[in-house]
Design a protein that fits this description.
This protein is mostly helical and about 180 residues long. Helix content is about 65%, strand content about 0%. Helix 4 runs antiparallel to helix 5. Belongs to the PPR family. P subfamily. Keywords: Repeat. This is Pentacotripeptide-repeat region of PRORP domain-containing protein.
Length: about 180
C-alpha cells in the first residue's frame, strides 16, 4: 500500500487482515500485521485474534502459540476468544498439557470459561482415554452453572454405556 503512495489506517488494516484470514492465509495476514506495526499502527486484540484463529484453522498451532505469546508480551491481554481458539486446537492436536496450562491461566486471570472451552478440554481428554480428567472438567463446568452441550453429553453417555455404568448417571448433568 505504502509503496503505491497510499497510507492506510487501523480500520483499513483490520479489514484487510480480516479478509486475508477469511481466505485462510494467516502467514500473509501476519506479514501485513508486521507492516502495519512498522508504519506505527499498533496491533489490537482483534487483529491478533483474527490471525491466531486463522492459524488454528490451518492447523498451524505452533504459529498460533507464538503469536499468542507475542500479543501478551506487548501488553495486550488475551480474552476468552483468544484462549478458546488456542485451547481448542491444542486439544485437537493432542497437546493437552499445554491446553490445560492455558485453561488454568485463563481461570486465574478471572476470565469466564465458556461451553466451547470446557467442551474442547473434555473432548481432548476423552479422545485419549483420560476419562477421569474429562469427567473432572465436566463436574467443574456444571459447578460453574454452565450447561453441557449435546456433543459433550454424548461423549459421556457413550462412555457410561460402554462401561455399563448406571444408565441414569449422565442424567445428573441435565438436571
Amino acid at each position: 500500500m505504502s509503496e503505491m503512495g497510499f497510507k492506510g489506517d487501523n480500520v483499513l488494516y483490520r479489514i484487510l487482515i480480516n479478509e486475508i484470514c477469511k481466505i485462510r492465509q494467516p502467514a500473509l495476514a501476519l506479514e501485513l500485521h508486521r507492516k502495519m506495526e512498522k508504519n506505527n499502527y499498533e496491533g489490537t486484540l482483534n487483529t491478533y485474534i483474527m490471525i491466531i484463529a486463522a492459524f488454528c484453522k490451518r492447523e498451524m498451532v505452533d504459529e498460533a502459540v507464538s503469536l499468542f505469546s507475542e500479543m501478551a508480551s506487548k501488553g495486550i491481554s488475551p480474552d476468552v476468544v483468544a484462549y478458546g481458539s488456542l485451547i481448542k486446537k491444542l486439544c485437537c492436536s493432542g497437546r493437552l498439557r499445554a491446553a490445560a496450562t492455558y485453561f488454568n491461566e485463563m481461570v486465574s486471570r478471572g476470565l469466564a470459561v465458556d461451553v466451547v472451552v470446557y467442551g474442547s478440554l473434555i473432548n481432548g481428554f476423552a479422545r485419549v482415554g483420560m476419562w477421569k480428567e474429562a469427567e473432572k472438567i465436566l463436574d467443574m463446568m456444571v459447578g460453574e452453572k454452565i450447561s453441557p452441550d449435546v456433543a459433550t453429553l454424548k461423549i459421556f453417555i457413550d462412555l457410561f454405556m460402554q462401561r455399563g455404568d448406571d444408565k441414569k448417571r449422565p442424567m445428573r448433568y441435565l438436571i
